[in-house]
């Protein structure tokens, strides 16, 4: 089905939207700024700041697409994409810049010269340029904050220095989600940065959010099968939404938890994947089910897979936590607590040997449901290593409720301390 | 011949360990040991004499140059590719014409005629070089001068210029004055518009050919015109140009280009860009004068010295030095002071402090060697007496980054100027005033000396003056707006870059709102306020306001937990209990622990919260990165 492909492109961020939604002023500002560099050769630097999933990269890509549509600009502009997670130091970043500018073979007569040669060459190349004759270079630094951790911030200093002097026209565009990013810059680097920041902070209301969900789900105008197009788009009309208060509740919950597009796309993708050839329309139940999958606690599944013994140990730990107010415990304490339970209710559960209990305890540690508090260097016997439980009471109780064929005694034991 | 001689000399040295005996007499042309073994220096021996202590034998020489010794930027003046055996009679006077007799390698034949010599070991001379231009050599100079008469290196070949005895105090600022509109340019511009007028009357067909050249020269002149404020006229020229060229033709596009260039020069936005080089540097006259005097005296005396310049970023340190060098270079072009070389290195623009040697050597001699080798070569260069040495002015920017554990890079940089034959002036720049005391060990700090200067942050009056001078009398800002910018920046940092950036942004904002009917086209208070807001206002409060409901709730839970504990730190587990209670109060469905952690991580990624490593899961400690009052204020604003 071609609309399947259409949606996967949309939700997996493989295709840009026609127009960035809800960030018109930022779009205009950035476009104007980059146009000044691309067309007039005026160097600039700018930071795009916004929380994860707020559309920083999308905005930039939209602007670049629009910019590169101009024929002259397309031929001239050299975009260089760097990512702080990939270019973890300046040496790698420089190599990447030389590679993307197709200069590998020019540096020092070999594919890649030394780091020092590379830097000197690049600076020389940028210095020779001027605003009218050289091709503008757009440096796009994704995860900008990570570049600030490089030694001496050499790369940032040099890029920003070029952008502040009469050399080849460059634009330095940083993308980051840290609001305090300017505090990371060294004073000389900071002085050279133009202090232009574009903030992407969405103040989307719930009504707009719902509109968004609908527009994201609807098929584009140019969809070939008009009959299907009508049926599909009709099925996600407003009345369908409002007739399911449950559905609005679910979306409200998502909206409350996060407004970003990425989590919304995840939800919609899950809902869409339930559409098949035999069931060619999206139903509100699909969304409910998808939301349930999205919201599920990550540890709940692990807890369901535990044995009764392991579950008992966790309950013992919970009691210890209650008694000692969250102080760390060791295996011996847990084992004692477990034995006390066995003495009281010996008929309901098999009496395990200590090594077996130890094994179960170690398994819990491997699952990272408990975590050792000692530093690894200290040589302490396994039984006496101090541990902490990485579970909340609510998680334990919920797991017990859902655990298949859980002995009543165990359940009661777990409940008992609450009273 | 000299190759053979060289060989025998080397053979003798290596095999028998003694010098080959060569005899030279005054009047002969000799080869002198230089930096390059393959091409030794060439000179004519004038006379021998012993120095004061009679220990060393010295010689007086008249220098000849190979083309490779001519500065790179002047080589083109020759206008043709040189013959490899061609040399030039040296008419400059910056070079020492005394040499140690020991540095003489041997003799060489030099002829003066127009045809290149046939044999390989004969050099020929045709032109002379006076550090500015190549001239045909006066044959009289090549006559054998009696050894007793000292040569007159400074020949009055160039027209008499300002007297070299003029006091340096008057020199700098005078030369830096704004260029007055050149009457010839005005006249030429006028004549151009005349020609165009006649052309538009009839001959359109011939126009295509000349339009290109015409417009290219026009662009220059218009730019000048705009600079001096003749806006009206140039607008008129542009207007009647457009009816002249057929739309869409090649010349039309050139014409558009030209207009573009003109428009750019008059836009205040461009003048305000930090990169645009101002005609003069206002507010740094005293510093300029001090540095100028320092460098000039050293260049004049042929001695060396160090200077340390400090100041916070954006106070014009590097710009002032560049301006000084520009003026000095101009002075040396006018032959008021000896020629000198200017080299610049920047601690931030190298990967390792030892790369400083490599860069200095490369800029001095175009050689590419490793750091250790470069250090050795520089050491040799600066400690040995060498003929024809001109003063080197070395600017070391961002000095603090040249710090190494043993501090040998800094040590060398400050030690070389103290050598007798170094002729090296080192100007160093860093941000902190007490850098020598803080990071340098005694022997380095002592060599740096006490010639220090500190650039104070600009005061608001100075910043105002800087913007006004940049705008070059174009009225673009309202008086109050200008005041606001300069006062704000002066209070914050006194950084001129910041000031210019704000102004540039304000101009942009003003342009965008220019369509508004009430706007006067001037940048007003409101525009500046908007720009300041964009750049300096903390975004934390807006970020909290725009956060999702659960995120806001989590922040409230953090504060509630802090209050309960009486500490500014809590674990996620503790905060989450509060969070759950709060959502019950608010009537929201409680969220699961994983969702809670996700909310916490999102706040941590924005740095509203400071978190420990996420592998600690529920035990990670949470701190606020904003003050509690700010959070409460922001949350209150959301609710109202």
TrEMBL record, chain A:
Gene3D superfamilies: P-loop containing nucleotide triphosphate hydrolases. One of its GO terms (cellular component) is nuclear origin of replication recognition complex. InterPro entries: AAA+_ATPase, AAA_16, ORC4, ORC4_C, P-loop_NTPase. It is found in: Nucleus. Residues 42-203 form the AAA+ ATPase domain. Component of the origin recognition complex (ORC) that binds origins of replication. Belongs to the ORC4 family. This is Origin recognition complex subunit 4. It comes from Oncorhynchus kisutch (Coho salmon).
TrEMBL record, chain B:
Residues 166-197 are annotated as: Disordered. Keywords: ATP-binding, DNA replication, DNA-binding, Magnesium, Metal-binding, Nucleotide-binding, Nucleus. It is found in: Nucleus. Gene3D superfamilies: 1.10.8.60, 2.30.30.490, P-loop containing nucleotide triphosphate hydrolases (3.40.50.300). GO terms for cellular component: nuclear origin of replication recognition complex. Transmembrane segments: none annotated. Residues 22-140 form the BAH domain. Belongs to the ORC1 family. Component of the origin recognition complex (ORC) that binds origins of replication. DNA-binding is ATP-dependent, however specific DNA sequences that define origins of replication have not been identified so far. ORC is required to assemble the pre-replication complex necessary to initiate DNA replication. This is Origin recognition complex subunit 1. The lineage of its organism: Eukaryota, Metazoa, Chordata, Craniata, Vertebrata. The gene is ORC1.
